[in-house]
Each structure stands twice: as C-alpha cells, then as structure tokens.
C-alpha cells in the first residue's frame, strides 16, 4: 500500500518534470540571448551606419577640395595666356591640363570636359567614360554630381569661372581602402557579438540552472513535508532570497514536527490520565458486584467513585480549555482590571478549603490595575492559590502580595508547604506533569493546572516563574508578572502618535 502510494507520487513527479522540460533555465537563457542579440545587433548597425556617414562626408569634402583646386589651376593656366576663348583653350590644352591635374592630385584619374560635355582631356587616356553620361549631364547644369561604379567613386564638378561654367572636371576616387576598413569593422563587430552572445548565454544558462536546481530542491522538500517526512536542515544553502526561503521552509518543518509531536504526546498523556480514574471506577463496580451487601464497601465505593469522577470532570474541563487556547488563540478581551479585589476574591473562594486544612491565607496588595482578560486572571489566581493550599501542611500559611515594578504588576504567591524538588522545576509547567503520582492522586491533581496558567499568563503578555527558594525556607513562591494598564495605554498612545 505504502509502496504503491510512493510509486504514484514518483510517477506524478516524473510527469511534472516532463512538463518542466522547456523550463526556466532554457526560457531565461534564450530570453537573455535574444535580448543580447537585439542589443549587439542594434549597436553594430549604429556603428556601421556612423562609419558609412563619416566616410562619405570625408570623401565628399576631400573631392570638393580637389575639384576646387582643379578649377583654380585650369583658370590660372588660362589667365596666364588668354589669347583664345575659354572653349578653344580647353580643347587645345585639355590633354595636358588633365595630365597635370592627375599628378597634382596625387595620381588621381582626372577627366576634363568642355561646356558641351565633350571630353577634352584624360589623365588615363585609355579608360572608358561613357557610363557617366547621366552624371555628366547633371554636372553640365552647374551642379556637383557623383556616381559609384564598382569600387570607384566618379565625382564631377562644374568648372566655374567669373564668366560662368566653362566645363566639367571629373575626378575618380578609389573606395577600396574605405570598403576594407568598413568590412573589417563589420567582421570584428560580428565576431565580438557572437562571442559575447555565446559567453553570456553559457553564463546565464549555468547560473539559472543552479537557481532552478535550488528551486527544485525546495519543491522536493515541500513534497517531503507534505508526506510527513519532516526536514530539519535547510535544503538549499545560499546567501540570497532562495537561501532565506529555504531556511524558512526548514524552520516551518521543524515547527510542524515539534507541534505534531507535542500533540501526539499530549493525546497519549490525556488517554493515559483518563484511564486511571476510569479503571478505579470500574474496579469499584466489580467489587460492588461481588459484595453487594457490604455497607462499608458501599460507602467507600461511593466516596471514591465520586472523587474519581470529579477528577475526570476537572481533567476534561482543563483539557478542553487548553485545546481551545491552542486552537483559537482565544479571544481575549483585555480591559483595565484592578488586581486587589480580584486577589481578595480568589482568597475568599479558597478560604473554606484552607480552614478545613488548617491553613491561613493573607493578601496584601497595592492598588494596581492591569490590562488583561478578567476571566483569565480569575483562572490564573485560583489555580496558583489552590496549589498553595493543596500542597501545604496543617498550620501552614499562604501569602499573596501585589506590587508595582517598572511597567509591570508583580503578584507573588508564597506558601509554607511541602515545596518542589529542584529536579522538578524544569518540567513544572508541562501538561500532565506532576511531581509525584501519589501526591497528585491524594490531592486530586491533574497536572494540567500550571500549564494552563502559564498559557493564560503568556496570552496576557505576562510571565510566570517559580522563584528560587532560599535555603532552609519551607514552601515555594510563584511570581506572576502582568503589564499594568496605564503603561499599556501609554504605549498604545505612543504608537498612535508615531
Ligand atoms: P495539579 O493539578 O496536579 O496540581 P499543576 O500543574 O497545578 O497540577 O502542578 C503540577 C505539579 O506541581 C503538582 O503535581 C505539584 O506536585 C506541584 N506543585 C504545584 N504547586 C505547588 C506548590 N505550591 N507547592 C508544592 N508543589 C506544587
């Protein structure tokens, strides 16, 4: 049965894993890669565009300067000997001028045209020029024009003199070096981009895989806790939010485990403690079955059965109250309660029992008002006073005092009774703990009183402790600390003001 349940759990787990195949690791890594691709791509495009613009501007400026230089040189040559008109001059001196300009412009290929667009000079006479007709027509209208053919930029500028346009100068510019530079930058960017992409993808993948593994460990831990296999150690050790979450899960698991064990122990004790009086009652009924006519037995049985039944009832009431406190955090109606009347009332209610046992109760209280639930306070004082009477000796005393210390009320209940051995002190407030079974049975104790008292005191924001007894002194002193009303309301006001 257990095996098959386990198998079923593993199977669903496997299915879930299948569902996780395109899990966080891949999603995150791919998203990171896509983002990086976008960034690197955009950056590359921007850089390349910038280089292109820069190159074009530089070439345009250079060629403009060269064409102006050419224009000036041709004009100067003409003006040095202006015997014929400009067009005749260009036709005659064109070849020589083109050659001169070629060497002047560091070996550039230069072509000269007259005002009709006829070629009059060419620094490289064998080259063909018909492809540039359209551009030339444009330049003949007094405008700068250029075109790109293969890795050559063919630039044309009008030869403008004071008399108007006399022709066109055409200068070739090789784009090879610029292209090489552009290509090498593009290749570099591409390589860096691919490298960065691969590297960051790998880094992202490894990192996210670690995170996902941690999440998976937490998931498994949660599954274990769900199936009752509590963990004590934090399943993931990291110094980040996941580590904190893991610590939290481990803490929660420890808490659930200890609360579960406490409850189990409590239930065990409850059943065990209930058994004793019931067994005793059953034993008496058996005896009565056997000796129906024994009047002495009848009386003894009646008295004892009543005592055991009372004990049972008291236990049931206390257990119910304890579990109520445990489950509902108990709705406490805190109000200002003057302690003196309350303590005197508790003493009065125990007076009959005390007189019966030959014990004197004395209360001595300052006027102190605490902020607490009245019902709970009554319960607390009755229980502690009852113990002080119950575990006392004939001729003994119980002193109840109340004073103020700091922002607290201090209630002390001192008795001259049988005392509590040192080894019992640590367990005194645990449910069902009794110093000795005989003592408890004799006094009709249940071992629940002090655990209930402690829980109630804590709910009032107070504390209870058994004071260390002075050597040689008889009895014990319990000290209960409770927050006083004025300071409680002052603190409240302070909080409101803030
Ligand atoms: P009970 O109902 O048995 O009195 P409590 O929880 O009130 O249970 O007390 C637990 C045990 O502590 C008691 O069994 C008793 O032995 C011991 N005890 C409590 N108060 C006193 C006291 N004033 N003097 C001596 N022993 C005490």
UniProtKB/TrEMBL annotation:
Single GO MF annotation: kinase activity
Enzyme class: transferase
UniProt entry keywords in alphabetical sequence: ATP-binding, Cell membrane, Kinase, Membrane, Nucleotide-binding, Phosphoprotein, Transferase, Transmembrane, Transmembrane helix, Two-component regulatory system
Catalyses which reaction(s): ATP + protein L-histidine = ADP + protein N-phospho-L-histidine
SMART domains the UniProt entry points to: HAMP, HATPase_c, HisKA
Gene3D superfamilies on file: 1.10.287.130, 6.10.340.10, Histidine kinase-like ATPase, C-terminal domain
Enzyme Commission numbers on file: 2.7.13.3
Residues that span the membrane, as ranges: 26-48, 153-175, 187-208
Name the record gives this protein: histidine kinase
Native organism taxonomy: Bacteria, Bacillati, Bacillota, Bacilli, Bacillales
């Amino acid at each position: 049965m257990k095996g098959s349940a386990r198998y079923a759990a593993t199977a669903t787990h496997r299915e879930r894993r299948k569902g996780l195949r395109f899990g966080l690791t891949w999603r995150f890594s791919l998203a990171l890669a896509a983002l990086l691709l976008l960034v690197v791509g955009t950056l590359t495009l921007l850089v390349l565009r910038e280089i292109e613009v820069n190159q074009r501007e530089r070439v345009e400026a250079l060629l403009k300067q060269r064409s102006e230089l050419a224009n000036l040189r041709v004009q100067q040559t003409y003006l040095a000997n202006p015997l014929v008109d400009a067009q005749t001059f260009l036709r005659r001196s064109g070849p020589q001028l083109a050659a001169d300009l070629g060497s002047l412009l560091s070996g550039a290929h230069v072509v000269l045209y007259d005002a009709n667009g006829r070629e009059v000079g060419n620094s490289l006479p064998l080259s063909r020029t018909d492809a540039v007709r359209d551009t030339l027509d444009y330049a003949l209208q007094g405008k700068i024009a250029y075109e790109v053919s293969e890795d050559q930029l063919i630039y044309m500028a009008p030869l403008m003199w004071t008399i108007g346009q006399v022709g066109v100068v055409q200068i070739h510019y090789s784009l090879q070096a610029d292209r090489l530079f552009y290509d090498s930058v593009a290749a570099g960017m591409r390589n860096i981009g691919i490298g960065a992409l691969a590297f960051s993808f790998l880094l992202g993948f490894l990192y996210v895989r670690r995170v996902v593994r941690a999440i998976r460990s937490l998931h498994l831990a949660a599954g274990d806790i769900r199936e009752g296999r509590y963990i004590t150690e934090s399943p993931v050790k990291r110094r980040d939010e996941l580590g904190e979450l893991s610590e939290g899960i481990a803490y929660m698991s420890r808490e659930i485990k200890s609360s579960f064990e406490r409850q189990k122990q409590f239930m065990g004790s409850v059943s065990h403690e209930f058994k004793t009086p019931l067994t005793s009652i059953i034993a008496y009924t058996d005896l009565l079955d056997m000796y129906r006519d024994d009047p002495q037995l009848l009386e003894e049985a009646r008295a004892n059965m009543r005592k055991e039944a009372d004990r049972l009832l008291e236990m049931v009431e206390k257990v119910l109250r304890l579990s109520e406190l445990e489950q509902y955090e108990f709705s406490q109606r805190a109000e200002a309660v003057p302690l003196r009347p309350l303590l005197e009332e508790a003493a009065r209610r125990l007076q009959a029992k005390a007189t019966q046992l030959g014990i004197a109760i004395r209360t001595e209280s300052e006027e102190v008002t605490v902020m607490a639930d009245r019902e709970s306070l009554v319960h607390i004082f009755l229980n502690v006073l009852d113990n002080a009477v119950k575990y006392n000796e004939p001729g003994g005393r119980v002193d109840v005092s109340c004073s103020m210390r700091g922002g607290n009320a201090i209630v002390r209940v001192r008795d001259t009774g049988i005392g509590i051995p040192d080894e019992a002190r640590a367990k005194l407030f645990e449910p069902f703990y009794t110093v000795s079974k005989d003592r408890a049975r004799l006094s009709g104790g249940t071992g629940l009183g002090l655990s209930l008292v402690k829980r109630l005191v804590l709910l009032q924001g107070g504390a209870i402790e058994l004071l260390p007894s002075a050597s040689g002194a008889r009895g014990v002193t319990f000290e209960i600390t409770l927050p006083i009303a004025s300071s409680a309301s002052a603190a409240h006001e302070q909080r409101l003001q803030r």
